[in-house]
Structures are given as structure tokens and as C-alpha cells.
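ping. complex inputs:
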Amino acid sequence: MSEIVEVRNVSKHFGDFAALDDVSFNISPGSIVGLIGPNGAGKTTTLKSILGLTGFDGEMRVLGEDPRSGRHKIMERVCFIADVGVLPRWLRVSDALDYIQGVHPRFNRVRAEVMLAETKISKRSKVKELSKGMVTQLHLALVMAIEVDLLVLDEPTLGLDILFRKAFYERLLNDYFDNETSIIISTHQVEEIESLLTHLLFINGGRIVLDCPMDEIDEIYSEVLVPPNKLQQANALSPIHSRDILGQKAMIFENVPREELTNLGELHAPSVADLFVAKMHR
Amino acid sequence: MNQLSILIRREFWENRNTFVLLPAITTGFLLLMMLLTLLVSATSSVDLNVEIQSSQDMEFFNDSMQADNIYAFALYQLEGRSTEERVQYINTGLQTLGGPLMGILWFVMVFYLLDSLYSDRRDRSIFFWKSMPVSDAMTVISKLVTGLWLVPLVYLLGVALLQLAAMVMLSIATLGTEISMLETVWGPASLLSNWIQYLGALLFYSLWALPFFGWLIAVSAYAKSVPLVWVVGVPLAMTIVERVVVDQPLFASWMWDHMIPISFLNMEQSVADNIVNLLLSLQMLSAVVVGGVLIIIAIWLRGKADEI
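pong. complex structure:
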């Protein structure tokens, strides 16, 4: 099956500032991609470009369509949750259900109602009467009742407490994800989604700095706890990052054969968070 | 079609206050006032002629007299008229009843269209609307259909209610008098043709003023702040520039002609004659073309729209 999203040499400039600078990547069917980067790295711009919500230079195909001209067609097969608060404040919950049922051919109303019934959200409520967490629950219930090929989540749990965040991702993985749906999640809280992901995309300063399947991470990257007496030897292999841990150095190496590293110290795969820090500093 | 109907419902959810509540309250208030004048004056006889004499174009009210209430007064006036005059006066009266609602309607239409593609960019809910499989053209069309045709219908309903109420009160005033309810009140009044004329005038105005409405919705899709300043400022600036450059302000007069309601009317003709004369005119064609272009620009701008 062909790629769900193909991005080729996409750039976007705001005046002199390059929000996206020659970005290319693919999203394959059935993958859960983490788009990870610091604030202002271009995460939201990337996702908005994919969704046809903003213009860009370069080439892009989302489900075979150019998002700049085919947004409304793409949206039949793609869902989007932005960071909290894009549901209009005046909208009543029951009206939201009516609306999506009216415009979306793939909306399963019963499913949405079942999910809403598990929350404290009243159908008579307006969005402005709900708490931040409830608005996200509502949006998730609406979106999860739509059968799509790609779900785009832009910092979906921003501003929510840890209980909501945990429940959100649990729900996402258990109730939503199957091997035919792809998900792309942007966040700067790496630890929370690390275990969900099948693919990593790091973005910084508008450029993709890492594009790698999760199961290849430990083949390419290694972290070694190097004791002080082997520092020189380790530095000769040019680690991409090193930090101090209890008198030793934790060093991350890229594409260095394991045999060369094992005699330096304790060897293991780096966490996504540490890899992220390493990549951002380069 | 299905999608359009739910999009229109969405517009009514968002604007329930100005689309439904405002005309309902205005109509209710006017009905109450009409009822009060009937009840209050029924108990105490009032001298009505001072007030009514002052309206000069209604010279037929000039006779000074005492009446129980304004309806009874109007009845005595009508009774002494020829049938033709009765028809004219009673229908003019009925049309006048629509004035307040029609005035409010104009402002509601203007501010609704001006806000329609602007406010959701401000509160970022544009991302929710755009995450639905609804084309930008459909979005803009749903707002135009709502603002130009459906909201006027709601207000027209209020006008019809007021007119019916006035007829009923006039009829009540005939009770206990020798005036014939049928001959003086219901006979000369042509309610149905009155409504059709109103409907025709509103439909006509929606096309005649399409440049204005197209301009409103284009600004609404474009402005990053204070859309009202754009809406007024640009035509004003163009008017001033034209004044300076040429003696004959053709463009400006065309523009204002298509902006201000009833400015196109030739007062010596009836509304219906006016409409028939202008419907197939070059002026009308120019209005629809310019309005259409502005609407296409609005759709294009909506496609590129982002949060602000």
C-alpha cells in the first residue's frame, strides 16, 4: 500500500523566517509517528500544511491529494485535534453531534454517544460551560467516532493534568488504533508518548533532524556509561552527546558498531528523551 | 443539499440571538404597544388629532376629531374615503408597520456577514470547521444563503404578524359601530400581495446590493483586525480619490447606490414597478457580476485563511 502522507522539499517562510526549511518525510499506513521538537520548531506548521490549513512551497500528497486544493476531500479521511480550545464556545454538545452527522459521511453517532455517556459531559451543555479537560474529552469522542485513515494530533494534551493525559493516550491506543489507521502526534513531552510510537520524527528550526523507525533506534544509536579513565578513547569515536551521571559520562553514539563500544562501558539503547536532547544540541 | 441544510442550521445556532430572539422580541414589543393603545385609550378618550395632523403627507387625517383610540380614529377616516383611497391608505399603513423590523434586519444582515468569516479565525474555531469535509465554497454559500434569504424571511414573518395584528385590532374597533368590518378593513387590505411585494423587494435587494454583501464577506474573510474599518474605509477612500481625480463621480454614485437600501427606488413609482424596471437593467447585471467576483474572492481567501 502506498504512503498516507508524502512530503517533498516543503518550505514555508514568514518574511525572512523559515518556519519549514526543505522538509521531506513519509507516513506509512498503520504507523504512529511522533513529531517531536521544541516550541517554535515547526511542528504545528508541518501539521497544518498536511491538513491544508496553511499554504507552503514544495510538494505534498495526503491520501493522494494536494492539501492546498483538496482540503475538504482530505478531511473525509483525516481527523484533526489541535491543542485545546478549537471547538467553538457557543456550540452545544448535541448540536455538535448533529453537525458532524450532517457533514461527515464516516461519522458513527452511536459510537460518539456511547463515549460521551462515559464522561460527565451533558449533551445540553455548551462548550464554554465545560472544563478544559472535558472539551478535550468531547473533541476526542467526536473524532474517535469518525473512521479515518489518518489522525492528526497537535499537542492534544497541552494544559491538561496528568490523569487526563494518561487516560487520553490509553483511550487512543485501545479504542482507536488499529493497523489500518495512522496517527501523527506532535508534542514536546516526549516521555508520555514514547511507548506508543512506531516512528520518530525530530524537528528543529524548521528542519527534520531525525527520521527513524522506533525499532531501528537501538541499531543506530547507543548510549554508553563511560568511566573517567576511558573518556579519551570514547571521545575518539565522536559521540553526538554526552552528559554527567554520578562521575561517569553518558555518551550517545550514532552509527558506531557495538563491538567498538562494549569495552567502553555499560551499553544500552538511549531513551527517546535523551536522544531528543542529543539531537537538539547539534 | 443535505450538507447545505446542516450548515444553515449551524448559522442559526450561532446567531440565535440576532436571527430569532431579536425579531421575536421586537415583534412582541410592537404587538404589546399596539394592544396597549387599544386598551388604554378604550378607557379614556384621547385627543388624537394633534399628533396625527403633524404628519403632512397624510392630509386625510387633518380633520380634527375625538376618538376612543387610534384604531377607531383610523376607521372613521377610512370610512369617509373612496374605495381606491382606502386601498392605498390601508396598504401604505400596512407597509409602514414593517419599518422597524426591516431597519433592524439591515443591520443584522450587515454585521452577520461582516463577522461570518472573521470571528472563527479570531477564536481559532476555524480549525474545527476546516477539519470537517466541507468545501470553502460551500461554507461561504451557506453564509450568504442564510444572511441574504433566510434571515430576511424570519423578519418578514414578524412583519406579517404585525400586519395581521393591526387588521385584527381595526376589526375589533369596528365592533359596536356602524362601520362594516369587511368593506372598510379586510376588503381594501391586500395582505397577500403585500407579503409578496415585501418578499420580492427583499429578494431584489439581495441581488441589487450583491456588490455590498460580496464586499462585506470578502472583508470578513480577509481582515486581520477591525473589519468594520475596512468595510467603510476603502469605499470612502475610493470616493474621495474619485472626487479629486474626476468631476463626475460615476463609480462612487454606483457604489453608494448599491449599498444603501431603497436608494435605488424612484419614489414616484410603486415598489413593484421599480423592481420590474430595474430587474433586467444593465445596472442590475453589473451588480450581480461585481458581487459574484467579490464572493469568489471571499471563497479563495477562505481557502487560504489561517488563525489571527
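DSSP finds 16 helices and two strands in chain B.
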